[in-house]
Amino acid sequence: MLKINRLKIAIRTAEQDFGFDHTFMQGINFIASDDNTCGKSSVIEGIYYALGFEEIIGGRGEKVLTSAYKNSIEYNAKTYNTLESEVYLEVHNGTDIITLYRTAKMENRDSRLVTVYFGCLSEVETGSVDYDNMYVHMPNSATREKGFHTFLERYLGLELPYVNNYSDSESKLYLQLLFSSMFIEQKRGWADIFSGMPNLGIKEAKQRTVEYILNLDTIDNEKKKISLKDKKNEIEKSWNDIVQALISDSRSAQCIISGFPNSPRILEEAVRAKVSIEYINRQEINSYILNLRDELSRLSSLKPKIVDNFDELQVELDETEKQIDLISNKVNEARRKLSMEDASIKSLRESLDTIKIDIANNKDAARLKNLGADIGSEIIKGICPVCNQAIADTLLPLANEFHIMSIDENIKHLVAQKEMFEFALNGHSEAKEELKNSISYFEGSLFTLRRLALSLRSDLYAVDEELSESIVYKKLELANEIQELEKFKNTVDNSLEKLTELSKRWKKYLDEKEQLPKEKFTLEDKKKLSSFESNFKNDLRTYGYKSVSNIDDISISRDTYLPVINNFDMKFDSSASDNIRAIWAFTMTLLQTSNTHLGNHPGTLIFDEPDQHSIVISNMKAFFKGIIDVEGWKQVIIGITIKDTDTRIAIESLDVKSYNMIKINEKAFTQIIKVPPLNDADDQS
Fold first, then answer.
1. Any idea what the Cα angle at residue 540 is, between residues 538 and 546, rounded to 5°?
2. Rounded alpha-carbon distances, angstroms, from residue 533 to 212, 221, 506, 575, 578
3. Are 207 and 214 contacting, i.e. CB atoms less than 8 angstroms apart?
4. What is the per-residue pLDDT across 542-552, written as a single tens digit (0 to 9) for each?
5. Is residue 213 scored above 60 in pLDDT?
6. Which residues are CB-neighbours of 446 under 8 A, at least 6 positions away?
7. pTM to 2 decimals?
8. Which of 54, 441, 608, 625 has the most crowded CB, counting CB atoms within 10 A?
9. DSSP for 416-463, written as a single string
């Protein structure tokens, strides 16, 4: 709960100090004056400012306050320049009393500094209370220990949830948003429900605020959904990183993997058995490694020296050079095909872009046509604009007339073409990747064969007793290839182990997702919303709402939690005075429903000039009585002009014990009488 005990505002000038110092009670507190320019709003602004809620007025810092705080103050037809101004606000949360101190104008003290005194204002004035300095309207002031709104949230016993923001991350449901549903200021607050809510980057801030005040389960469910979405994104990213790394390794190893799970799913224990690895020549990797080992074994059995080996070397060199020519041709052919694929892909993408533009244009045309626009010229209709005769679309006579497609038919045809082109583009893209892999493999083979040919030529012209360079080179190449393929096999196994762990997390995610409520609202939520809707309608009746013949046609939207009539914003069917009644009703209903269903409403309301648009006396009486009749804790501060006889009568009809009247006679900020210090003579007398 939040109870405002005392507000003290001090404004200092060179000649005279001015101020406001009054206490408030539980129930209704009127700050009243006969005229509308006596400073009631300036006083209420002091409450907002001390709490760091001035964004509800329209901005941050002292700039949103009235001139008296910043520039000058008028009193008895004289203007005094403001030198310093400060606000003290004593509040109570049901357990502890604290006093908040914030300056609006003071040298060497920033307006973003808030001092929290851990005691009542009278103790602050005597200097016998502990305090702590905090900051507001700076980064992390709602989350860090020294952030004032972090402290205030904890002091009020609130646990504000984290909700989605427009940066696709999470932020707290800021206190300013919460209290904008409770503090209705004069300038903007009466335009519409929540019209004073500042834009702090929170998605669907109004909905989240109502959900929190009424303590709906939807906000927890939404939080769970956000958490699950984060888990899903994390698993998908980790899974994709492993797959992409393995694809890169497979290209380096010139292997093709089949049966590898490319996206998250629940994996069976025998998943390794379903994954097959082939060398690029389509030979199973274990068989290929076995063949390489056999070849290495054969080479190892040969004598490393060149003795009577000339003919064999010449034959092998000839065969190697033939292989080089053959593979070179394959590389050239693959590059030619790759160039053709690039050209096809470019053409398909251009065609796709054109089709997408055509689809968009046709959809716009269909939309305009459905709205009743005349989108067809005479030529489009097949009529000559000169002679008004039908236009033939060919110079030759036709045996049959052709059917001209409608806009909708044209859209369907274009969409079908788009899908066909996308399918073709996907096929060409896959073919391009295969060609790139083939070129990579062939170029690797060419490099090996050319190195082998070089070694063979070296052997042919070597001395018989020298070591065979070609045999040594082939042995090294074979040993290296075997090692790389074995390493790649281990990489695949390790990747599968990682995916198995991710699969367990994926299974847990799916189970948690399945446990989420299938419906948006729990049974308890439905009860709260039904109560909220019923209370709102009853309050409208009590306050004299007449813009619709049957108030039962009004409902609370289950999407926005705002009042609607036949799914349209209720404001559009309301007169100016009934719009004020609707704001009364909605603001009061939040408090009523929260108190009844153990919601999170702090119990404090502020209405600045609620008697807008000449509300009739009976409705004002009903409004005041409705406040008094609210069950549970409440404190309501009302700034009101009572020059109008009806308003005065409405207040005077209340039991004097049920409200506290703070009467402003001429100006809210009055002279502070300075008591001069006693001198020696005075002391002796």
1. 130
2. 16, 22, 41, 21, 17
3. no
4. 999 999 999 99
5. yes
6. 324, 327, 328, 331
7. 0.69
8. 54
9. HHHHHHHHHHHHHHHHHHHHHHHHHHHHHHHHHHHHHHHHHHHHHTS-
